[in-house]
Amino acid sequence: MSEVELNLSPRGSQSPWASDLALDSLTTSLSAVILQTKADVLALNKPPTEPSETKLLGDVSFTLQGLNSSTLPFVNSGAISLPNTLPLPMISVLHSLVEPALLYKNLTIFVESPSGLIGQAFRSAIERELRGYLSLISKIDEEIRKELQAQKDVPEWKRGWSLGGVTLKKCVYWLRDPTIILRLMTDMADKCKELDKNGGQLLNVLHSYTSHGDPFISDFASRLLKDVSRPFYEFLQQWIYTGDIRDPYMEYFVQKGDQSDAVWDGRYVLEESQIPTFISDELVKKIFQTGKSLDFIRMGCGGGDWVDQHGTELSRTFHYGEADGEIEAAIDTAYRKTVTHLMFLLTTKFKLKEHIQALKNYLLLGQGDFVAMLMELLAPSLERPANTLYRHNLTSILETAIRGSNAQYSIPEVLRNLDARMLELSHGEIGWDVFTLEYKVEAPLDVIVNAYATRQYLKIFNFLWRLKRVGFVLDVAWRRSITGARGILSYVKDAVDSDWKMARACCSEMIHFICQLEYYILYEVIESSWSELQDELNKPDLTLDHLIEVHTKYLGNITHKGLLGSARAGKEDSLIHQLHEILKVMLSFTDAIDALYNFSVEEYTRRQTADSNAPGGSGATPAIETTLHTSISTRIKSLKANFHSLVEKLLADLAYQSDTEMRFLGVRLNFNEYYVVQRHKKMTADAART
Fold it and tell me: Phi, psi at residue 163, to the nearest 5°?
């Protein structure tokens, strides 16, 4: 006995009997006899245990199924009470054996918890794996029952040690891979519970295991993900083929927005936290655009029949792990067909390009002959107080201007949307201050020319209209001074000639300023921006979102460059504020010219009357009305000085703008360096510091 103990002790990391038990391929009777003899010796020297291994084997199958037994009762779902009478090696074996039991019991609780559709698919996949686990336990239990039946006639001290018999260690060996799977599923479940993951977030948790270095784990995760992702791909299929989504648990990365009554903006939003990591950003954009476009075709364009046909022709099922490129190709086909048809509807059925062109022609004053005729017809009415104007009169004049210009050849849909109206009245305003043109854009094009775009168009029109008005009254004043110089003004040259020379020179400066500013806005700003917009509109695969973006950019360029950085329009030192002050001075200057002309006519009349009353029809030139003349002359000089001061300040600010076109505008306004431009204060301060 002692010799046997000496030969078998101490045990290394791999005991001889464990190695011998693994030699299942031995077939010779001699070897079998030798091994069985060793087993008998070990069994004879094994100390007695309570409960015995046979008793434990009888209960282990219940424990592995999460059920209580007499020897291995569950304390709770996370603990099992082990007998304290067993030796440490046996306790170690039981630790390994009860681990899958505890994992199984916790997973059974997890699969019963409520969740969304993808969460339910995850729990269903775990439940299927647990059924496979129970099937294995059933086979192990069958082997145990056979072994227990065979050992009924074996002495108690020898039970469990016969060659080829079922032991606790062999059970641990059989459960090695299943335990890894149970650990993996428990880890997945714990992460989802702790981080409160659902939908696409849950898919991302599972997908992270597919890149694991152990092929066993990565293959299992891929197999699990194929089933769990099924609801996600059903969402995807429904979205890109019908433009609809039924997502009661908010698990999809496309969700209904706050403005569910809208037809485009705010109707659907992209929930980035729910985007699966196995879908690229570019593909996500295509998916989002495809569904939104289908919904817009159905709801905004009345194309429900086309959407139904689209879904019938292209619809197919998706699943995780398809061959490379198959899902991407199917989504790309649906995307291209959808966005192409949407742009076809907008440009043909709803005349998108014609309406955008009309906005440029009428609100951005691109239709020159129409604008000139409209201003000439409106001028007498707009000089009156604003409260004396009536909308039907303005509309009648607008129709006359349309019939008298090339605007009459616009399509009926355009002319029907063009109207004239008045802004809100304020005390003391005249017609010029409240008149505006209005272009009504109807659905579905109102998602492109939205409320923001309409305000931008109105802002640009009001500024350009005021610019045209100033240019118009300056032109009238210039023509009057030139034609008057050949007529009645020539008879009073001795009295007002110097005043008229100064007035004509200053008027010429103002006309040059207006002409250069108009050229800059209408050609270098609007036309160049229009050219960029046309290039974008003619690009293939143009989406509605991109169209809205480029149209907004188009208006942004015009308002920023054309209104000289109007974002700071509320500040007194902003360029647009300075420009408005210059225009006010110009209008006041035309009033002063009118006063000078009226004074000149009165002087001419007075002289004619004096000559006719004098004996012989001629006499000395009567004295001029010096008080009124001096007042007018002083006013003209003051306005001229004020104009020069404002222009010089504007030129100084333009010289240091970051935008090249705005800097070049300053060069063109002062091409011969007539105005003395002081160095910019900021630049002077910077130079002083250096």
Answer: -65, 130
